[in-house]
Amino acid sequence: MELYIQIKDGQPFEHPILGDNFCAAFPDVDVNNLPPEFARFERVACPRLGVYEVMISETPTYELVDGVYKDVWHIRNMTDAEKTAKQQAVKDAWAALPNLDNFSAWVFNEAACGHYPPIPSPGANYFWQGTTASWVEIPQWPDDDKQYTLDFASATWVEVTP
Fold first, then answer.
1. In angstroms, how far is CA 43 from the centroid of its own chain?
2. What value, to the nearest 5°, has the Cα angle with vertex 75 and ends 78 and 11?
3. Which SS3 state, helix, strand or coil, does residue 4 take?
4. Residue 39 belongs to what H/E stretch?
5. Using one digit for the tens of pLDDT, what is the confidence trace for 136-155?
6. What one-character-per-residue DSSP string does 70-83 give?
7. Strands (DSSP E) along 90-151, which ranges?
8. How far apart are CA 92 and CA 38, in angstroms?
9. Between 20 and 30 A from 35 (CA), which of 44, 82, 93, 116?
10. Nearest CA to 3 among 59, 60, 70?
11. What single DSSP character describes residue 130?
12. Is the pTM above the cut of 0.85?
């Protein structure tokens, strides 16, 4: 996608313009030889944040990078207090699980800010069975239209009664 941005007083002005719209709005400007009041622009996707990073702003700034104006996303590391609060929120949510006993072998991984099993999952069709401390294949869902919940200990579906 071809984009351009207007430059006023050495700074990007307003927002990028699509190439076709730019050519229609400024028919006398040669896009291969831009005057100083215009510049090429490249969109940069919003980066994926690390576990302990926060976005300073939900919108990027437009900055000159290697001779081209681009979206620049500003990210910072969490403070120690923010990191501790995030970890505590994850631990609190974990402690509130209705079937927490099934996951007593799982441990909190500070680097990833989450609870993890002692043995990696073998795949998507498995669940953690706390009574055996192992992964067990999920049993086939019953064919009727009733509602069920998985009983972790017996590895069977149990009908939910209203």
1. 19
2. 150
3. strand
4. strand 38-42
5. 999 999 999 899 999 999 99
6. EEE--EEEPPHHHH
7. 107-109, 114-116, 126-129, 134-137, 148-151
8. 52
9. 44
10. 70
11. T
12. no
Question: How far is residue 3's CA from residue 6's CA, in Å, rounded to a whole number?
Answer: 10
**Parallel, antiparallel, or unpaired for β 68-72 and 38-42?**
parallel
Residue with tokens 């919108």: 59
Strand pairing class (107-109; 61-65): unpaired
Q: Could you tell me the end-to-end alpha-carbon distance of the chain, in angstroms, rounded to an integer?
A: 56
Q: Decide if 131 contacts 138 (C-beta within 8 A).
A: no
d(CA 160, CA 142): 12
| Residue with token string 């579906």 | 157
Q: Is the pLDDT of residue 162 over 90?
A: no
Element (H, E) at 25: helix 19-25
Q: Residue 71: which residues within 8 A CB-CB, separation 6 or more? A: 42, 43, 44, 60, 61, 62
* Backbone torsion region of residue 100, taken as left when φ is above 0, otherwise alpha when ψ lies between -120 and 50, otherwise beta: alpha
